[in-house]
Every structure is written in structure tokens, then in C-alpha cells.
């Protein structure tokens, strides 16, 4: 890959790290569109526990895994800002590694690309 | 920060329906891998990794919408479809959802198929159909690109939300007393507003990338205008 593409890649990752690591702390804490729709019909106390009514959110069950990064925080880190930011940074790097690595593994190899280009040329030649 | 679940949690949709959608999602992702391989070369693979990482980051940024007490966040299907194409784009969103479910406790693991079907499959498919249409009819200007990104992103969010409503009709665990229309109306209204945010984020990001590196915008590479614009010879039109 060309140097310019590497520059773009590194720059893009830095932006993502900044968003997930710092800006995420200023995100709205209100329930999102799905969650709020599922809470319609119930009443909640200050701790977000259901106090009455009937709504889909009542059926919510425990998550199977949970884990040290559950709910976008790092278990054991008491500072909220640090906990959220750190979980965001880990998430960005992990997602980049899983997605980038996976795509790299299944990518079209150079030889296949040449084959495909040959086929396209042949088809185009036959068509004209 | 308040602990927030952004995706379908366990218990919301019953097991059998969740299992059916897990199979649907798996089949769709297999097609995306097979078809997406044609697009994935040495250059696109790391870029697609970046798109997934970027979507993860921006999904954390819940923004307030006009309705009091409700927030929205990026789903990312339109953004991914614009930048890396529909097949690889759907895979990018799916990877984000898998990481969120397995590592961040967001969205039940048993509900993964439902979440992938709505946001990765339906959202990205709706977005790309619109992108393909709009890029052919709108002028090839930053404004045309921005409008394409905005509209396709907005519609994709509402389509994904309606995917959930359909799933809820099939396997919702709370008896709404025949008031599914109420849920559909609430979901559609809220996600129309969230779609505006999604549209703004998508348009801004795509136009920024297109300015810096137009060659990295898949939709601009893959979709040529319907007819070559007639270029009058200089001085030929009087």
C-alpha cells in the first residue's frame, strides 16, 4: 500500500480513538431510540428501576457474557471519565484488529485479481 | 456515564424468532463475504477495518434529539456502504455488533442475529439502493454527494427500526394488547429524528473523505453517472 494510504489510515484511526476515548464522555446519557420505545408505558425511579406500568423493557434479561468491559466501562477503574475513555480506546483498537484482520484474511489475492482483470478484459473484448 | 444498552437486549424477543434471525443473519453474512471478496483487495481491506473502528467509535456518541429524554446514535450502514460498498459495508457493521455483544455486553448474544439483520443487512441494503439511485440522478458535486449520504442514511435508520417492529410482531415477549401500531409509530417517529443526526454525520464524514481522497469513496468509484454529461465544444453553443 502506498504511503499516502497509510497516512490516511493512521489519521482516521487517531480520529476514531479521540472520539471513543475523549468525546464519548460528553455523549447523551438518555436512553436511545430503541430503548426509549421499549420503556414506553412504564414509570422509572431515579435509579432507572421500573416502578410500575407495563412495557416491553420489563422482559429484559441478563446479558450472557457481561465481562470486564460491559456497558462501556473498565471494571476496577473508578474514575468515570477514564473508564469510559479507556473502554472506547480498547473497543476501537479491537474492532480495527478484528475487522481489518478478517478482511485481510479473506481479501482477493494479487493472483486472483489478475485473473479477474483478465476475465473482465476478455468479456469486454467479446462484448465490443 | 450512565450504563446504556444500545441494541436489542436478551428477553425482548423470544428464543425461536431470535434463532430464525440468527440463521438469516448468518446466511446474509456468508453472501457478503463471498461477494465482498471481489471488492476486497490489499488496499480496501485495511480501509474497511478503519471504517468498522470508526463506526464503533461514533456509535458511542449518543446525541440528544428534539424529543426530551431520548438520545440517538449512529448505526453506520449508510456510511459503510458509501465508503466500502454494500457487501463489505454490511460486514463492517456486523463486526461492530459482534464486538459490542461479546465484549461490551451491549445487545444480547442470543439477539445478535436480530441486531445484525436490522442494522447490518436491512440498514446497509436500503442505504445502498438509495445511494445507487441518487448518485446517478444527482449532480457529481459535493452537494450532490452530501444529499445522497444524508437521504440514504436517514432512510436506512427508519428501515432498520421497522425491521425491529417486524421482529417484535413475530416474537415480542410483551403482549402489547394489539397495540403494535403504537410501537411502530413511536419507533418510526424517534428514528426519523435520529435519522437526521445519522444523515448529518454520514454526509459530513463522506464529504470530508471525498475531499481528501475521492479514490477511497467506493460509491464514487463504482457508480458512474447514467449518461456522460454533454460537453459542448468551446464556442460551439451560441
TrEMBL record, chain A:
Residues 1-29 form the signal peptide. Keywords: Cell membrane, Membrane, Signal, Transmembrane, Transmembrane helix. InterPro entries: PDGLE_dom (IPR025937). Residues 7-108 form the PDGLE domain. The chain crosses the membrane at residues 86-106. It is found in: Cell membrane. The keyword Cell membrane applies. It comes from the Bacteria. The keyword Transmembrane helix applies. One of its GO terms (cellular component) is plasma membrane. Pfam families: PDGLE. Its main location: membrane. This is Cobalamin biosynthesis protein CbiM.
TrEMBL record, chain B:
The chain crosses the membrane at residues 12-34, 46-66, 78-104, 116-138, 144-166. Its main location: membrane. The keyword Nucleotide-binding does not apply. Keywords: Cell membrane, Membrane, Transmembrane, Transmembrane helix, Transport. GO terms for biological process: transition metal ion transport. It is found in: Cell membrane. This is Cobalamin biosynthesis protein CbiM. GO terms for cellular component: plasma membrane. It is a multi-pass membrane protein. It comes from the Bacteria.
